Hints:
A hairpin with a 2-residue loop joins β5 (155-158) and β6 (161-164). By secondary structure, the chain is an alpha/beta fold. The protein starts with 7 loop residues before the first strand and ends in a 7-residue tail after the last helix. The protein has nine helices and 14 strands. It has helices at residues 38-43, 69-83, 100-110, 133-144, 238-245, 263-274, 298-301, 311-323, 328-338; strands at residues 8-15, 53-62, 90-94, 117-120, 155-158, 161-164, 169-170, 179-180, 188-191, 194-197, 226-230, 250-255, 278-283, 304-305.
Amino acid sequence: MKQDNLPKILVLGTGGTVTGTAPNEVSTARYEAGRLALIDLLAGVPALLQYAQLQVETLASIDSKDMHFPLWMQLAERITYAQHDQRVDGVVVLHGSDTLEETAYFLELVLSLAKPLVLVGAMRPSTALSADGPLNLLHAVRLAATPQAQGQGPLVVINQQIFAAREVTKVSAYAIDAFVSPGQGPLARVLDERIYWLRRRYDIPSGPPAVVHLTDVPVDQPWPWVEILTHGVGADARALQALCQSGVNGIVLAGTGLGTLSATVLAGVDAARKAGVAVVRASRCLLGPVLHDIGNDDTQLGMLAAGDLSPQKARVLLLIGLRKGLDQEGLTRLFDQHALLAHLP
C-alpha cells in the first residue's frame, strides 16, 4: 500500500521506560526514563512506515511516577482535538508503565472516543538488550490503525497483548509480562502480522460515555486531594484521622478480603464521614468485588463500594467525581454506574 493511502496516526510522547536509557545494554532496572527523543525511538522501528503515516508530538519526557493532573488534562485535550481532526485516524500515547493503568482509566472516564486510542509502554529501557519497547510500539500503531479498535475505549498494548483500560493492572516490577486483566484476560493477542481478538470489552459496542467532559469543569479549578490507605494487621485510625485533620477530600481504603475493615478503622471512618470526607471501600486483593453492605455496613457509615475497581482506579473515579462537585448522592450514583458488581441484583 502506498504511504499516502495508509492510516494517519498521531503519536504522543510522555516519556517512561520506553524512551529510557541506561549505562549499558544489560541494565534493565537502573536507567533514566524519558531520555531518548521520541523521534529517535520511532526511527529505530522502520516497519512502522508499512502501517501508518505518523505525526509525532512530545508532551512530556517524565518517569510516569511523576505523572500529574495538568499533564492528564493536556493529554486529554490533545486527544479530544485529534478526535475532530480529519488528518488523524487514531492516536497512540507512549507512557511509563508505573501509572499507565491510571492514565488509561482517566482518559476512559473523560473522553468520548470515535477513533482508536492506544496506550503503550515498556518494561525495559531503549538501550537494553532485547528491549521490548520497539515491538510494543509497532503493535500499538498497528492497533490504532485497525477498525476493530474503535468503540472499545482506550486500549493498552504490551507484550503482544491488548487490554481494556478499565481492566488492566500492572503486577510485576520487572518482567515484560507485567500487565494482566485479573479475572478477564486480554481482549486480543498479537502474533506476527495478525491481531487475534478474543472478546470485546465488557460493556457496550459503541464505547463508554464520558463521566465528565473536559468542558464541564473549569480548567483552573483545583483538583481534590484523595489518598489510598491500605488495611493490615493492627491497622488503626490514626493515619485516617491525620489525613482528615490535614484537609483531605477523599480516601480510598484498600481493605482485606472483601474490603473488610477493623472496628478501630471503622470508628475513624465514621468521624471522617461526619467531617465531610468521601470514603471508598476497596480491596487489596486482585480478584473479587467489594460489594455494598457486604463485609461492612456501608449504608450506616456512608461509604462507597469500589465493586471490581482496584484501589488506584477507585481513586481515579473518586477524583473525577469530587472535581465535578458531586455530593454523596451523586458519588453513590457514579460508583453504582462504574464500579461493576458494587451492588448485588
